[in-house]
Amino acid sequence: MLEIAYIRQNSEDVITRLAVKHFDAKAVIAEILSVDENKRAIQTKLDDVLSQLNKASKEIGDLYKAGKKQEADELKNKTTAWKQEITSLEGDLKKADQDLQDKAVLLPNLPNKNVPKGKTPEDNEVVFKHGDIPQLPESALPHWELTKKYDLIDFELGVKIAGAGFPVYKGKGAKLQRALINYFLDKAAEAGYMEIEPPILINKDSGFGTGQLPDKEGQMYHVTLDDLYMIPTAEVPITNIYRDVIVDEESLPIKNCGYTPCFRREAGSYGKDVRGLNRLHQFDKVEIVQIQHPDKSYATLEEMREYVAGLLKSLELPFRTLRLCGGDMSFASALTYDMEVYSGAQKRWLEVSSVSNFETFQSNRMKLRFKGGKDKPRLAHTLNGSALALPRIVAAILENNQTEKGIRMPKAIVPYTGFEMIS
RNA sequence: GGAGAGAUGGCAGAGCGGUUUAAUGCGGCGGUCUUGAAAACCGUUGAACCUUCACGGGUUCCGGGGGUUCGAAUCCCUCUCUCUCCGCCA
After folding, report:
1. Nearest CA to A286 among A309, A262, A307, A310?
2. A372 CA to B40 C1', in Å?
3. Is the ipTM of this complex over 0.95?
4. CB A81 within 8 A of CB A53
């Protein structure tokens, strides 16, 4: 959520920058400014009347103590009108505040100056490329054939147990999952991230804090009996650890990571995009999260991008890094890099990581602040990235490394899998 | 699931209608003393919002919401959460 004070002082800038995200903010901003002004007028008035009442109450107490009952009673009568006014003003204030909140929540985060102007995924800017596109023989199989051939993943069995999009990993397929999770967590620890194992169900406040609620309610599984949501990413519980917290400036940056399964309803998805491991309702992911000083958050974003690139290199996967254009960015992000690996048999790029700086968009919702010395608390910047999402990594490894004799494992994870080949 | 207890400032912990503008202790910060440190002593110690060019002034916050009252941390209602015991259970 954007800060109201910022909107008040920079309304033109907000409108211009939101246009990059193809969001026409003109009308909403005008409404916000007007409601905000009205709200402040109400509050000034209310504070004034409350102040009078407080003063009178004190006097009444003193008068009673001094035995001047009659004077006290007279003063009491005066308060009736004030109390009515207070009730009325409080109602107005609450309404104005709610109104303001409702409108402000509709505004996406402001894109950073470096965000390309485009509208569709084609307009994303390729900022980095690594590795050669694998030249596989015509007989090369897509991963959903390979997983069947080597009995690694049973998609039909998942349908029986839960439904489409809930694969059952078996044998070396399951072991590969576990190996990748451990590998990613170990690498993150080496890079200074503290491992967290968070709850995978979250409450409404947490969903609001990171921006999933209220807009994306339909994307999450909702456990209605207890009013909890299954996490779509570890970002939600790990970032919400710091909701309503004021951290010491010296403790920045805070670097956390965690492995969790992730659950997404993916309502409306269909076609070949959802084939095999390409899009699932449940998948495994290791997430990295940082909380950083506003002055340093963009350096941190680059550092995180480099970190994820390093992981992909170590897995010997060809990949490219995209800077997302205004039209393709998420609601909450100020700047996002997507990392895509090339999946040789499908002959397409698959997104395996998304690294974003949210600036104060999440921290303002969460009231996550930092404080140094005698300075006033300020909103911190939050960042996160996948490091990495497993299914598409697995898809690319299986497809790109297939040979006549079986599927070769990248060297880096052999110590974790305990096998070099799947055959 | 049953029974009971509780929710107060960074933490611990008083307060149970108007000397609370929240006692006291610990912690934190500053100082005195000291070659330095410790101890001791003194001072200081939150957040949000409104208003003001500024100095300052005002309002709100004792789990959330509502009520009683001129006045609520304190009384009433309600919700949520936590703890203890019992039951069940990985």
Report:
1. A262
2. 30
3. no
4. no
Strand B closer than 7 Å to the CB of A43? yes
Nearest to A262 by CA among A219, A294, A224: A219
Our measurement of CA A28 to C1' B58, in angstroms, reads: 31
CA distance A21 to A111: 7
Q: Pick from A409, A406, A405: which is nearest to A317 by CA?
A: A409
Please write the tens of the pLDDT for every residue from A48-96.
999 888 888 888 888 877 777 778 888 888 888 888 888 889 889 988 9
Amino acid letter for position A97: D
- Sequence-distant (≥ 6) Cβ neighbours of residue A137 within 8 angstroms: none
Residue–nucleotide distance: A178 CA to B55 C1' (Å): 64
* Residues A226-275: tens digit of each pLDDT: 888 999 999 999 999 998 888 888 888 999 999 999 999 987 666 667 78
Q: Is A188 helix (H, G, I), strand (E, B) or coil?
A: helix
Domains and CATH numbers, chain A: 4-104 (1.10.287), 121-422 (3.30.930.10)
Residues belonging to chain A: 423
Distance separating alpha carbons of residues A149 and A423, to the nearest angstrom: 9
Nucleotides of B under 7 A from a protein CB: 18, 47-51, 57-60, 70-71
Question: Tokens 């100020």 belong to which residue?
Answer: A334
Is the link from the previous residue into A253 a cis peptide, with omega within 30 of 0? yes
Kindly determine whether the C-beta of residue A76 is less than 7 Å away from any atom of nucleic acid strand B.
yes
Three-state helix/strand/coil letters over A392-421: HHHHHHHHHCEECCEEECCHHHHHHHCCCE
